[in-house]
Amino acid sequence: MKVGASAYRAVVDWVELEVQLLRQSNFWTVKKAVHAALRLPQGAHSFFEALDAGSGSAASAFRFRIQDLNQMRQLSVVIEELNYKFGLSSVRPIAVELAFDTFMQGGTVRQLAEVATDRFKFNTAKPGDDWHFYRMKGEGRHYANTLQQRRDLIELFEASWQLTDRNSKDADIRYHAYVKTQDNKKSLIPSRYCARLEVTLRGMALPFTTIPELIEFNFTSLAHHFKFRRLADDLHPAVRDVLAKWSGRQLGRNGRYRRPDTQRIGRYSGTSRFRGSTVADEGLNTVAYECLRKLTREWRSNRSRADFPETFCA
Q1: Boundaries of every domain in the chain
Q2: How many CA atoms lie within 13 A of 118 on its CB side?
Q3: What is the pTM of this model?
Q4: C-alpha 265: how far from chain center
Q5: Tens digits of per-residue pLDDT, 132-146?
Q6: For residue range 248-306, what is the model confidence (pLDDT) as tens digits?
Q7: What is the Cα–Cα distance from 58 to 120, expressed in whole angstroms?
Q8: Residue 7: in which H helix or E strand, if any?
Q9: Helices (H), ranges, the chain
Q10: Strand partners, 134
């Protein structure tokens, strides 16, 4: 979706499946079959693990991720291939990662880092643990609540640091933001760089638990994960300057805030869910919703041609 010099999209970054074969098979044989079905290049990196491996490398239960899964046909090809070669007794989705991307025509990494910063600052999600930046293994974290200025966040995003709200990647809900300049460890061309905000859902937060539910899923039901605020128009210029430039806090966070009494200076009248200095960013929220609606159309577009074994669609 294009708006001015910016373009937006929502994508399924990956779906994680758990499959049970009718009999044990070699780990590498099963992984090779999945890669072949997805037409992945030789040596491509992907998450793939055996759940009940015994002696040697044989197993009957596996978990793996299908990357960039944006049409139902891609999913059906993998299931068809595994069922044909090994026989499947069950298959179920156990996690999904959804991303909201922002592209800028002629935009630099610095400009995209500014966008990523604002996605964090004005997102309404409550963090699971603490928002923190991380990069390479062994490097210390930078906690967002210790950063005093907006430019501190921008510089970290620009230097390939990534932001998350969880200490564990196995949490039911995990948010993740960064400037995307690579895909599968390969550099993208600059026109494909984007500011990305992701949400990973698993466990109790997973909105579908069967293949039929996944086939029919409407991604607009997840729009609440991509809700944003913005600074209110009537702020005093000095207040706006402080919040815009000097604060590293998550200003859009849903919580409990004292509501200023407009009739009595220095007094408060109850609480509100959001800071009084912000208002809903209706424009961006509409864009995010429309991107999710487009994703749903594309996801369902060729489901009639997705030839799932009947066992998994009942």
Answers
A1: 1-106+162-217+283-314, 229-280
A2: 17
A3: 0.87
A4: 42
A5: 999 988 889 999 989
A6: 789 999 988 877 655 556 666 667 888 888 999 999 999 999 999 999 998 887 654 44
A7: 44
A8: strand 6-26
A9: 27-38, 72-85, 109-122, 150-158, 211-215, 237-241, 282-300
A10: 162
